[in-house]
Prior knowledge:
The protein is mainly beta. The protein has one domain (4-383): 6 Propeller (Neuraminidase), CATH 2.120.10. Helices cover 8% and strands 35% of the residues. It contains three helices and 30 strands. It has helices spanning 4-14, 336-342, 376-388, and strands at residues 22-25, 31-34, 40-43, 53-54, 56-57, 72-76, 81-85, 95-99, 104-111, 121-125, 130-135, 138-143, 154-156, 158-161, 175-179, 182-186, 193-198, 203-204, 209-210, 212-213, 226-231, 241-246, 251-256, 261-266, 273-278, 282-287, 292-296, 311-313, 315-318, 362-363. The strands form seven sheets. It has a five-stranded mixed beta sheet, with no helix packed on it. Helix 1 (4-14) runs antiparallel to helix 3 (376-388). The protein is globular. It starts with a helix and ends with a helix. The model is unreliable at 1-17 and 319-389 (pLDDT under 50). The site of one 2-acetamido-2-deoxy-beta-D-glucopyranose has 6 residues, from helix 2.
Amino acid sequence: MFSKALLVASFLLLSPVAAVPCIGFDINWGLYVFGLAQDYSLGPSSNWNQNPLQGGVLTTTGRPPFNGPNTSCYLSQYSNALYVLNADTTQPSNMHIYSFETQSWTTQQLDGAGTDPNSLTAILDRNTNVFFALSNSKLYSLDMGTLAQSDGTTRPWVAVQDPPFAANNAYPKPVMALAENHIHFLNTGTPAKVNIFVIHFSYTQPEPQFFGPLEVGGSGFPSTTGQTASIFKDITTPQQKFAFVPDDGTNTYIFDVLANTTQAIAGPTVKSTSRLAASQRELVQMTSSGELWWIPLNPDDAQPNYSATWSKINFAVNTPTANPSGSGNGNTNGSASSSQTSTRTGVANSPSSNSSVPNSASHAHGSLGLLSTGLLTLGLGFCGLWSIL
Ligand SMILES: *[C@@H]1O[C@H](CO)[C@@H](O)[C@H](O)[C@H]1NC(C)=O
Ligand SMILES: *[C@@H]1O[C@H](CO)[C@@H](O)[C@H](O)[C@H]1NC(C)=O
Ligand SMILES: *[C@@H]1O[C@H](CO)[C@@H](O)[C@H](O)[C@H]1NC(C)=O
Ligand SMILES: *[C@@H]1O[C@H](CO)[C@@H](O)[C@H](O)[C@H]1NC(C)=O
Ligand SMILES: *[C@@H]1O[C@H](CO)[C@@H](O)[C@H](O)[C@H]1NC(C)=O
């Protein structure tokens, strides 16, 4: 149907930059997908075995175009909001905030203060709601206060320190993960070891921390690039575990930062991971071709669940009617869910507790199904699509 040449031509013409969508959770552990042709609410994991799973369509008002080269999304657990970095190439240093509570977008002006938005790697500290980012070997912070929407000010990134292990560009491909208010830096050159920045003391530990594999004869996690996700606890407790999926996808590593161990459970079925997100009990993968898969987690069990397996979420992408380029700003607000969700207020009635079901034409969401949702998504799937053509 599509030749490679046509795909390449379309890609080059319409999507000069490969956009990266996001997945994220609200504080009731409803799952969301941001940055496809539209944004969708998929509800809690009890919904995910529906086939197809129909997503509620979120508002496009104030939504960023999700055309940045390295968009990243973070749940602010206290604010029940999603903070989105680098989602608009016309303002890469600004932040877009989606309030799960009011289901609306605002834009927060930021002062980049020397950070490079296209290459910075960031985590959001849960307890303080402060971002930390490594950019060009320097660690920066950004205080988000209690914002669930923009406060109209310009918030600055502030230089914190030059971590010794990252000096002289010795750490060019940072992989960062948050747990127990410590930033864990993976991919530092030594398998099974991380460097640690202790947020509350603004202190880089001089020696790397060893994470011992629970598996007898196991070799510990590899020092490579990959994706991470903090595994949330309840509202009173910081994350104490995080997941790491290395780029080769051979295993999923669950780090326990109290015991300083790793558990190597099943690697994703589809190896190419573009994004990970975790709730309390689920780890969700977005593949580079836009598929969603998940695996159950048990945050209270110190034992690895070696029998846990990855399942595909067969979610239905609704074809936008008015905006075939899929830029997301075309007021494609035709679905039943827009009015339905806009009347909801309060956490208990957020879409996560009952994912709304729009009725417009939809089709099962497969790799090729993405193609018809808008050519922008070609950018998303470009690398992954090669593998299926
Ligand atoms: C969405 O639809 C509602 C109801 O028709 C309308 O009030 C609202 O302005 C629309 N929003 C956008 C962004 O078009
Ligand atoms: C995007 O960020 C990741 C780290 O999260 C980094 O490894 C990668 O190089 C970045 N990509 C671009 C295009 O800057
Ligand atoms: C785990 O590592 C942290 C950070 O280095 C350290 O503070 C803690 O004492 C370690 N815990 C154990 C049980 O060794
Ligand atoms: C382990 O995973 C299996 C398979 O997904 C699941 O049925 C089981 O409930 C999990 N056990 C725990 C303790 O989470
Ligand atoms: C979700 O809302 C629909 C329509 O209001 C209702 O029929 C259904 O029972 C609700 N489901 C849940 C799980 O609350």
